[in-house]
Amino acid sequence: MSIGVNHAPVAARYLKEVAAPGPDCVMLAGRYNLLDQSGLDEVLPLCASKGIAVMVAGVYQSGLLADPRPGAPHGYATVPGEPAGRVAAWHSVCRDFRVPPRRPPSSSPSPIPW
Fold first, then answer.
1. 105 with 60: CB under 8 angstroms?
2. DSSP letters along 13-73, please?
3. Of 93, 97, 32, which is closest to residue 68 (Cα–Cα)?
4. Which of 13, 74, 96, 103 is the most core-located residue (most Cβ within 10 A)?
5. For residues 73 and 30, is the Cβ–Cβ distance under 8 A?
6. Mean of the pLDDT values across residues 21-28?
7. Pairing outcome for strands 53-57 and 111-112
8. DSSP H or E segment with residue 108
9. Contact between 6 and 31 (Cβ < 8 Å)
10. Under DSSP, is residue 83 helix (H, G, I), strand (E, B) or coil?
């Protein structure tokens, strides 16, 4: 059994309330990346303590981290100023160190090993 969500509090509540044996895997979309690390508040520690595998999805935050153009989508809305500024700063660091901010798409998820 597994669960897939894009709201960390929903996953955390489920993990706390589900009857044993509970899920063997959690897919957490958009909540563990350079812009949003809300998965670290409760979900990832709960998964680690219970031995539950985690698959992170949406690691480029709807494409925003790879392509920070004005008006780029962010979740289901337009990017607010604060995240847009953080993305611009991240791209600046990438340029300073000559590291490309994009990488080829992955065909398979990378689970977080505990």
1. no
2. HHHHHSPTT--SEEEEESSSSSS--GGGTTHHHHHHHHT-EEEEE-TTTTTTTT---TT-E
3. 93
4. 74
5. no
6. 92
7. antiparallel
8. none
9. yes
10. helix
The H or E element that residue 5 is part of is: strand 2-5
Provide the token pair at 59. 């690691």
The full length of the chain comes to 114
- 65 touches 30 (CB < 8 A): no
Cβ contact 29:6 at 8 Å: yes
What average pLDDT does the segment 100-113 reach?
59
Whole-angstrom Cα distance, residue 64 to residue 56?
16
pLDDT of residue 75: 66
The confidence band for 47, taking pLDDT boundaries of 50, 70 and 90, is very high
